[in-house]
Write a structure and sequence with these properties.
The structure holds two protein chains of two kinds. Chain A is α+β, with helices and mostly antiparallel strands. Chain A is 43% helix and 25% strand. In chain A, helix 1 crosses helix 3. Helix content of chain B is 75%, strand content 0%. The model of chain B has no long low-confidence stretch (mean pLDDT 85). Chain B is mainly α. Classes of the chains: A alpha+beta, B mainly alpha.
């Protein structure tokens, strides 16, 4: 199963990205676990300094911005390919 | 046509449309105010409404262009890239570079904690890290546009120069004080992974798209402040006597700069909301240094960012941070009152 982690300290933008990620998963109709990670040590271990960040299957794919829904969909399909 | 060529062609068209809109704005608003609405030229009401009709679209046009360009520039930078550029730089040169990178690196105060940890963990000196953390919020692109639109480019440049000066001086002072022990202990134990950075790999199409997104987001967020601010400014224009504030906020009142900063620090507002106040202050006799100091205290030292930074800094260092930045703002205020 695909694992999607949204990294953030709990700010408004981070919740927005979490929401978008869930929408993208629903749109693609795939099995995926979307999780919001707020633990700072975990965030730093991914080397992310700009939140919100997106990690798909343990790979950092976006940092420091709120991508559009279509971009998140592309990130997921790229990870699945 | 291939992709980049199409992106550039569309950009060129947008630039031409922008230029035409900006050029015809003044004759158009005068026609609207004096011919369509039949307001009297030179009358107080007529001039106020003409001023409002002209200034609101002018500021919004300038704002859109500026946000687009700065966002485009910022797609070439990222917190990760800035950290790499600052790596191995010593005090002094590092502070100058950090303050300048603070302008072009995309930064939101909600990322202040991971950014702080990432910087100090990779060996960037504490003072250099602070120069970045101070410059990033103090030098604000919305403020630059409003100052440029309402006061001219000299004041806008002066604001950027003073923001850089404050960030550099405060960073150097914090570095000299050797306060590393007042960083929360867990920060030094963090393990930081290899950074992800796509700032150099993006396509032009993607960069331009991010520029448009930013224009839409920010204009949506601040347009109401701009409209209200300019309306208030247009109103104050005639109803408050000129020089009403000269006694209390003019150059002769030495205490006005620290008082303006003390009032400004606990206030928190965005740049769009505070500049109309500043313009009213200046119009009514406040000196420029005092008004700029007030503005930078409001937008530079924000309570939310301080609360966020408390997670990585002990209270002593928070106190030093606020104190040093406030002092630097006060000194810059005096400097401008002296030289202008």
């Amino acid at each position: 199963m695909l694992s999607i982690k949204v990294l953030g300290s709990g700010c408004a933008n981070c919740h927005k990205v979490e929401e978008l990620a869930k929408q993208a998963v629903a749109q693609l109709g795939i099995e995926a676990q979307v999780e919001l990670v707020t633990d700072m040590q975990t965030i730093m271990r991914y080397g992310v300094m700009g939140t919100p960040g997106i990690v798909i299957n343990e790979k950092v794919v976006s940092t420091g911005r709120v991508p559009a829904l279509s971009q998140i969909t592309t990130m997921i399909t790229t990870a699945l390919a | 046509m291939n992709q980049p060529a199409r992106v550039f062609a569309r950009l060129l068209l947008a630039a031409i449309a922008w230029y035409i809109a900006y050029t015809i704005l003044q004759p158009l608003t005068e026609f609207l105010a004096f011919d369509v609405l039949r307001l009297e030229r030179g009358s107080h009401l007529g001039e106020s409404i003409a001023f409002f009709l002209y200034d609101v679209p002018k500021i919004l046009l300038l704002l859109s262009a500026m946000i687009f360009l700065i966002t485009l520039l910022r797609t070439f930078f990222s917190a990760e890239r800035t950290r790499r550029l600052l790596g191995g730089k010593r005090q002094g040169i590092g502070n100058v570079l950090a303050a300048m990178l603070g302008i072009v690196t995309p930064f939101c105060s909600c990322s202040a904690v991971p950014l702080f940890i990432g910087f100090v963990e990779s060996g960037i000196p504490l003072g250099v890290t602070f120069s970045f953390l101070i410059a990033a919020p103090v030098i604000n692109e919305v403020a630059i546009v409003l100052l440029f639109g309402l006061f001219g480019w000299q004041i806008a440049m002066l604001y950027v120069a003073s923001g850089l000066t404050i960030a550099i001086i405060a960073g150097v002072v914090i570095g000299q004080l050797r306060l590393e022990r007042y960083v929360e202990d867990f920060v030094w134990q963090m393990q930081v992974g290899a950074a992800h950075d796509d700032s150099l790999a993006l396509s032009w199409e993607e960069r331009v798209a991010r520029g448009w997104d930013a224009v839409r987001d920010i204009v949506k967020k601040v347009w109401l402040y701009v409209v209200i601010g300019i309306a208030v400014g247009a109103g104050i224009h005639g109803y408050v006597p000129t020089d009403a504030l000269a006694e209390v906020m003019g150059k002769s009142a030495w205490w006005s700069v620290p008082v303006a900063v003390l009032i400004g620090v606990p206030l928190y507002s965005n740049a769009a909301g505070v500049i109309p106040i500043v313009s009213a202050l200046i119009e009514k006799g406040a000196s420029l240094g005092t008004a700029l100091a007030f503005m930078m205290a409001v937008i530079g030292l924000s309570l939310p960012e301080t609360i966020i930074l408390r997670r990585v800094l002990k209270p002593q260092l928070i106190a030093v941070f606020i104190g040093v930045v406030a002092l630097a703002i006060i000194l810059t205020g005096y400097l401008f009152n002296t030289i202008l």
